[in-house]
Amino acid sequence: MARRGAYAKGVAKREEILEAALDVIAREGWHGASVKELADAVGLSQAGLLHYFDSKDELFTAILRKRDEVDSRRFGEVTGTESLPAVREGFVGIVRHNAQVPGLVQLFSRLAVEAGDPSHPAHDYFVERSAALRDMFTQALAGEQEAGRVSPVVDPETLARLVQAVSDGMQLQWLQDPTVDMAATVDAAFTLLGMVGPAGIEPTTSTV
């Protein structure tokens, strides 16, 4: 029982750390979110904080996972079985919210680059997250194509990758120029999905 109680306390403390870290990074930005800042926010030493995580990178990866969990609660968990309008509303809502938490966007973008190394602690997180997002878009787009509301000129998985590319690209543009409206541009990409195929081109499955 003592071991089970200690484990439960450890899980609760880890959750407290992640919740506090989201607030600190959102408020102070990526550069202000040192391990010391995060430790101070929960009344721990730096060593005490890292006791709950294997490394600093593992800590920051866990923070991103917690952000996704919080976003799912805030905007609704979208699986792709919903209609494209529902997927669109939820996803654009998250993009719009991201503009209010630049520190978390900075963290995400920095780790996304570093996670290109398969040995990086965040590598699996980004691979799995990207695949899940793409699958969500693919399912919703396939349903819209079957209903005739989205052009079948390009296959749904390729369209899903294009939406991802627009979202990722706009995030980088926004980091360089905060006056850019990320949400409006991503929303415009969804609008384009409903346009008919190019004149004179027979609908076909893309081989891209």
From TrEMBL:
Keyword Transcription: yes
PANTHER family per the UniProt record, alphabetical: HTH-TYPE TRANSCRIPTIONAL REPRESSOR NEMR (PTHR47506:SF6), TRANSCRIPTIONAL REGULATORY PROTEIN (PTHR47506)
DNA-binding region(s), chain positions: 34-53
Name assigned to this protein: TetR/AcrR family transcriptional regulator
Signal peptide residues on this chain, from the entry's feature table: none
Record carries keyword Thylakoid: no
SUPFAM superfamilies documented for this protein: Homeodomain-like, Tetracyclin repressor-like, C-terminal domain
HTH tetR-type domain: residues covered: 11-71
Keywords noted in UniProt: DNA-binding, Transcription, Transcription regulation
Annotated source species: Leifsonia williamsii
